[in-house]
Here is the input.
Amino acid sequence: MADKKQELQLRKEEAPMESEPTRNRRVFTPAVDIIEREDAIVVTADMPGVDDKNVDISLEKSVLTIAGKIEPEHYADHRISYAEYDVGDYRRSFTLSDMIDQTKIEAVMNRGALTLTLPKAEPAKLKKIQVKSL
Here is the structure.
């Protein structure tokens, strides 16, 4: 049972070194909650300030990557004297196991929280292969 649970877990993937951001700004790793249900794994990523138009989700070679962009606010006739809040983009990648049905992944963005539903794949069924003679 422990082996099965380990297979279902998402493993954090390091950001690929061959790609560099083209925007000169900080990139944050969004905090996530991962919940396993009987039929799916649900990942909620906290990306404050990001709306659904600025989220990019890609899946390549079992690596699921989420990215969110924020445009900083510029204040006319104001100069910031002191700021503790830093604005930047978000990026995080996960390697999906074979237990996830990659064709049925769903994503919903709501007030800076991205919720990904990763449905579990059907268990492989025994398939009988007929042998023909020549």
Residues 25-72+86-122 form a domain with the Immunoglobulin-like fold (CATH 2.60.40.790). The chain has a mean pLDDT of 84.
